[in-house]
Amino acid sequence: MASTFSTDLSLELVATGEKAGLWGSITNTNLQLLQTASSGYVEVTLSTGTTTLSLADGDATANGKHLYIKLTGTLSGNASLAMPASTTGGNANRVFFVEDGTTRGLASDSFTVTLLTTGQSAGTQVPLPEGATALVYSRGSVPATSLGMLQKGFTTVTAASKTAYTAVNGDQIGVDTVANIVTITLPASPATGDEVTIMDVSASNGFGTNKCIVARNSQPIQGGTSNLDLTANNQCVTLIYTNATKGWQIKTNSTS
Asked: Which of 2, 77, 204, 248 is 20 to 30 A (C-alpha) from 190?
């Protein structure tokens, strides 16, 4: 009977009486795979579209088997990182960290990065805020990638080059409105507990001169149907999504 491979990491499982003289190399490869899964670091370059990680059989260098994955590259469109839903051994489950180190150029807005399991529908994928690091869990049987924990990042929107930005859950956005009014659009399909922070980082003047418009994106803001205008210098507001009736509630609103 030939070797088989395990599900999550595709470790080679040698059958009794097989692979004579090869046990040493196979065992060492399996140990390297376990090391990669427990402490491995790899960088993956994104550009546009979906980049699928590898869980290749018996491959200790396969990028999908690393514990910590740093995303790099300059985006030319919206990008996704996909964990395979299965290996030759069956459904694959993976727990791993993803750090965003991409450059998300685009004059009018910013390109997005989402995390998913192969076959997962677009509406349930995990958005990765700019500069954030996420602990995620990929379940091949569903298939779905779910957010475990999020270390928030920070992104700056400067009106001299960009006057609009679409936020995702976990965004912390510094807005410079010295040159123009800026519109920050809230996520279109938020989940309860989603949070966005927007703050004035203008070198001079600020929201008191050129306001920041918080566009509700079809969801209520404090139960109302109007966008939120931030008009005070040094203002910082955090919004948290509650439900379809109240929508986004203002968690904090400071001007000092």
From this structure: 77
Q: Which ranges constitute the DSSP H helices of the chain? A: 23-39
Q: What is the pLDDT of residues 128-139, one digit of tens each?
A: 999 999 999 999
Q: What is the DSSP string of 115-149?
A: EEETT--GGGSEE--TT-EEEEEEETTTTEEEEEE
- pTM of the full structure: 0.90
d(CA 86, CA 207): 50
Q: What is d(CA 131, CA 150) in angstroms, rounded to the nearest whole number? A: 11
In 3D space, the residue among 151, 200, 195, 155 whose CA is nearest the CA of residue 173 turns out to be 155
Positions in the chain whose pLDDT score sits under 50: none
Provide the pLDDT for residue 156.
93
pLDDT digits (tens, 9 = 90+) for 67-91: 999 999 999 999 999 999 999 999 9
152, burial (CB in 10 Å: exposed 0-12, middle 13-18, buried 19+): middle
b/e string for 16-38 if b means 16 or more Cβ within 10 A?
Answer: eeeeeeeeeebeeebeebeebbe
Q: Find out whether 178 and 206 touch, Cβ atoms under 8 Å.
A: yes
- Residues paired with residue 139 on neighbouring β-strands, in sequence order: 93, 144
- Mean of pLDDT over the chain: 94
> Are the C-beta atoms of residues 186 and 248 closer than 8 Å to each other?
yes
